[in-house]
Amino acid sequence: MKATWEKIEKNLGVLEVEVGADRVSEALDKAFNKVVKKATVSGFRKGKVPRSIFEARYGVESLYQDAIDILLPEVYTEAVDQTDIFPVDRPDIDIDQFAKGETFKFKAKVTVKPEVTLGEYKGVEVPVQKVVVTEEELNEELVRLQERHAELVVIEEGVAENGDIAILDYDGSVEGVPFEGGQAERYSLELGSNTFIPGFEEQVVGLATGDLKDVEVTFPDSYHAEDLAGKQAVFKVKIHEIKRKQLPALDDEFAKDVSEFETLNEYKEDLNKQLEARKQQEAQGVRESAVVDKVAELAEIDIPGSMVDSEVQNMVRDFDNRLRAQGMNLEMFLSFSGQTTADLQGQMKDDALKRVRNNLVLEKVAKQEKIEVSEEDVTKELETMADTYKRSAEELRSVLEANGSLNSLREEISLRKTIDFLLANSVEGAPVESTEESTTEDK
Question: Where do runs of H (alpha helix) occur along 390-437?
């Protein structure tokens, strides 16, 4: 097989491939073995028609498309490896020649991974994150812990407030006609959570147990169900019960219930250490993001739109997986938020572009600095994962090898090692307060 690669412009090029007639013959044999099982010729059972009779009846040309479908994927992959290119989108294939006894020739227009021209990436100034846990932050954490251990008690008197759980029936209609998904009985709604259509929860606030009310709302213009978007609806609401969070007192008994400490003061000291460790980790994430962003800004790359689109799809899929882990899914989220999939994709596009750019730059730095991932690195990572997933490192390796994800793990390790390299070769800038949470997801 012969394969040549010629760049046309930017990240687009043409891959020309010529395959020997012997492989064309093999592909035709495979195509015949596939179609003969269904071929009908008088005097022969299905699957038993001789090749010569089949070709006389249907023509050898009837095998060409199946033979191309069999041969093309494997030779395209070989040609990509031979020319050392990295496609990032589906190729546009143009068949030049395919016939029995002749070579197979085709051209493929291919969008490839862009070239990266690095700017300065050593000596980049990165601000030092000054870690301080304030009294206010400690108190906020204690309040969160109170809410986490709060009890829901039924309110016998009074009206619903934001933060309460209203147990209610609702029956929605548009112009008097019920619509799908607009009815429920004894539904638990946390008021102020903004999970329902804008305006709904606000009108439930102030109602008492046993109250009936017609709640009038307008669906957002961008609502995912086109037949409801922008329309006014009426929900007949009945309140069955109101539950309110009853917070435990912040005292020594609380400390004993939620921790291993005997007094609240001891627990607060330990909590302060936990918050400091968390903020140290967040500060590290901020520094990592800062150094990668600065190095990426100094690089020159022309990123194909297909790479960004692909990353958006990955982000949507990851978001759906996170929702499912919380007992929801993407369809439910879109329904509650009044968005479409296109809206969500549009919101993710800038982040997707940043991820693609940063990853391309990190790959280039790793290549230039010869940063490699050893088997020892992989084993160490698998051992860390084993602690998290409560499975042996050998089991995890087998799973990753089986589903083809071991290379992805190596790439992730390489990115982290490259970020560590950039930080080790950065310059400390002026210190700043570490107050915002940060992760390394954008890299």
Answer: 393-402, 406-424
- For residues 146 and 258, what is the distance between their CA atoms, to the nearest angstrom? 10
Q: Which two tokens stand for residue 146?
A: 């109170």
Residues 319 and 345 in one domain: yes
**Stated pTM of the model:** 0.69
H or E element, residue 88:
none
Query: What 3-state class would DSSP assign to 119?
Result: coil
Domain ranges, residue 422: 256-433
d(CA 32, CA 53): 12
Q: CA-to-CA distance for 406 and 201, rounded, in angstroms?
A: 47
Distance CA(400)–CA(394), nearest Å, equals 10
* Per-residue pLDDT of the chain in tens (443 residues, 90 and over written 9): 999 999 998 899 999 999 999 999 999 999 999 988 888 777 787 778 899 999 998 999 999 999 999 999 999 999 999 999 999 999 999 999 999 999 999 999 999 999 999 999 999 999 887 889 999 999 999 999 998 899 999 998 999 999 999 999 999 999 999 998 899 999 999 999 988 899 999 999 999 999 999 999 999 887 878 888 899 999 999 999 999 989 999 999 999 999 999 999 999 999 999 999 999 999 999 999 999 999 999 999 999 999 999 999 999 999 999 999 888 888 888 887 788 899 999 999 999 999 999 999 999 999 999 999 999 999 999 999 998 888 899 999 999 999 888 999 999 999 999 999 999 999 987 666 654 443 344 44
Residue 85 lies in a domain: yes
Q: C-alpha distances in angstroms, 327 versus 162, 308, 324, 333, 363?
A: 23, 29, 5, 11, 36
Q: Answer whether 248's CB lies under 8 Å from 150's CB.
A: yes
The reply to whether 143 falls in a domain is no
The verdict on 396 and 273 lying in the same domain is yes
Residues with Cβ within 8 Å of residue 57, at least 6 apart in sequence:
41
> Could you give the CA distance from residue 190 to residue 193 in angstroms, rounded to a whole number?
6
Total domains in the chain come to: 3
